[in-house]
Design brief:
This protein is α+β, with helices and mostly antiparallel strands and 187 residues long. The chain is 17% helix and 42% strand. The protein folds into two domains: 2-41, no CATH class; 46-186, Sandwich (Immunoglobulin-like). Strand 1 (20-21) and strand 2 form a beta hairpin. Strands 3, 4, 5, 7, 8 and 13 form a six-stranded antiparallel beta sheet that branches. A three-stranded antiparallel beta sheet has the order 6-12-9, with no helix packed on it. Strands 1-2 form a two-stranded antiparallel sheet.
C-alpha cells in the first residue's frame, strides 16, 4: 500500500512540473486520453434480425413463371423440395462505426444449401464451412477415393455445407443497415 502512495505522489509531482506539453495542459491531455479510451472500449451496437421466406412459383397469363417470396412467421409447414430464403439484417444502432462485422449463420437441419445463392448488399466476403464452423474457406473441397485407390480433391457437394460466414470489410456507419441472405432446399 505504501508503494502505491509513493507512486501516486510521484505521478502527481510529474504532472505538476509539466504544466504544458504540445500547448495543452497535461491534465487536459490525460482527460482527453481517458475519453478516447472509454470510446474505444464501449461495445459496438449492431442489431441483428433473421427472417425467412418461402419461394412461390406461379405462371402468369402468358405462361411464364413468376417468382414471389412469402414471409414465414410463427408456426409454418414446409414440404420437401420447398426453397427457403434466410435473410440476416443488421443495423448499427450506436453513434460510432461498427468495425469487423462478421455474421455466421448455420444451415438449418433438414435443409441443403443452394450453391452460389449467398449474397450481401454491402460487399461482404463470403466463406463456407463443411465441418460445423471449425474452419471457413471460399471454396470448400473434399477428398474422394476413386475405385482404383487414387484420391482426388473435388468441390464439396451442397449437402456438405454446414455454415456460411459474411465478413464485412467496410465499417458499418451509424444508423446504417446491411443484409446477407442465402437459400436452402427442404429435404
Amino acid at each position: 500500500m505504501k508503494r502505491f502512495y509513493i507512486a501516486a505522489l510521484g505521478a502527481i509531482a510529474f504532472i505538476a512540473t509539466m504544466p504544458f506539453v504540445s500547448g495543452m495542459p497535461v491534465l487536459a491531455q490525460l482527460q482527453e486520453a481517458g475519453e478516447n479510451l472509454v470510446q474505444n472500449i464501449q461495445p459496438q451496437q449492431v442489431e441483428l434480425n433473421l427472417s425467412a421466406q418461402k419461394k412461390l412459383v406461379e405462371l402468369d397469363e402468358t405462361g411464364k413463371e413468376k417468382v414471389t417470396w412469402q414471409a414465414l412467421e410463427g408456426q409454418v409447414v414446409v414440404q420437401p423440395g420447398d426453397v427457403l430464403r434466410y435473410t440476416v439484417s443488421s443495423e448499427n444502432t450506436s453513434e460510432r462505426p461498427a468495425e469487423n462485422l462478421v455474421i455466421t449463420q448455420p444451415i438449418p437441419q433438414r435443409t441443403t444449401y443452394i450453391l452460389q445463392s449467398a449474397n450481401s448488399n454491402n460487399g461482404a466476403t463470403m466463406t463456407y464451412s463443411i465441418d460445423n464452423a471449425t474452419t471457413f474457406v471460399e471454396n470448400p473441397t473434399i477428398q474422394v477415393t476413386l475405385p482404383d485407390g487414387t484420391v482426388e480433391i473435388r468441390p464439396a457437394p451442397a449437402e456438405a455445407y454446414t455454415h456460411i460466414r459474411w465478413d464485412f470489410s467496410k465499417p458499418l456507419n451509424p444508423a446504417t443497415a446491411a443484409s446477407a441472405s442465402y437459400e436452402v432446399t427442404v429435404r
